[in-house]
Each structure stands twice: as C-alpha cells, then as structure tokens.
Known about the structure:
alpha+beta
Amino acid sequence: MYAINYSFESLDDLRFFRKSEQQEIMDTIDAQLRYEPTVETRNRNELRPNEVASWELRIGRFRAFYDVDEEDRNVNIEAIGFKIGHELFIRGERTEL
C-alpha cells in the first residue's frame, strides 16, 4: 500500500474547486493510487518528461498529476486541474505541461 501526500501547491489547486468536487477528486485519488499507482490504465498514464509530474490520473474532466517514490512507497500529488477540450487549467489559468 502507498501513502498519498499532497504538496502545498496541490492543496491550493484543490481549494479552487467546490467541496463536492474536492471530495470526488480526493476519493478517486485514494481509490486509484493507493495500491498500484504505476500501472497504466485507461485513466492513469505516464507522461512525457515535464516540470510538473511523471504521471496523470484522469477523474472525469479533472486531472491529478503525481510522482511515485517506489522505495518509500509514497505517491506525491503535485498539481490538480481540469480540462476543457484539449486545454488544461490549474487554478483557473490555462497551463502547458
């Protein structure tokens, strides 16, 4: 089992959403990343090298970006945003990965 840690930035990202959306995002992160965070699935993908994170979890229109520390068995949530079409927004601002 992996521990899930949220960066200060990701917690700020999470505050951008309504309470019900925050709960949905956190519940899905816990369900999807607690046991096999590095197994690719339809909603979990390894990303090309970038400055944010190595992995992406799709939660409907929401996205959680994370890194995995296999040695310590930690999942580190680095950013949380949402997509409209092909554009990613974090804290309401358009972002490039």
